[in-house]
Design brief:
This protein is an alpha/beta fold. Helix content is 32%, strand content 20%. 41% of the residues are buried.
Amino acid sequence: MTAPHSPSRRAFLLAGGKSSRMRANKAFLDFCGQTLLARALTALHAACAEVTIVGDPETYSSYGDVISDIFPNCGPLGGIHAALTYSTADLNLMLAVDMPFVAPDLLAFLLREAEGSPALVTLPRTSRGFQPLCAVYRRAFAAIAEQALRAGKYKIDALFAAIPIHVIAESDLSGAGFSENNFFNVNTPEDLASSRG
């Protein structure tokens, strides 16, 4: 698939996980009357004109532009790598499909932070650690991701020690009106039940 005319920034929805702990495809779970997929796509489209799904084309082709992992079964790093390899934009917003409390204003905030920084990755850090699945990656990170994937190293956070990153601290998130609750992700049926409550 050929990428369209290069925008300055793109957004990618990471929807390629196996959802093994959920025992169902998380993307199609209902959350407050919307699927997690629809909710995430709405937020991404509000923040960015160009949105692409990274996942199985047979599953998601009716929902928009879809690309597959180049290195399959390598977790989220494989999805980020595929997105950056496909992208023609310098700034690339990544969002996992299972983060229902990420709103357009948070995504817009991340993009503004990334635009003001030369770092390869702009990402929040909360008391739970880095949030690499709601972050902005420059296209140059693709080479770093590919090197790690070829070496069988799939942990995203481990790559940040050796590259320039722009960390948005919890205090800065709070000052902008956000909290670590925005980054809650739904992994199990219990998570889904608690998030609905």
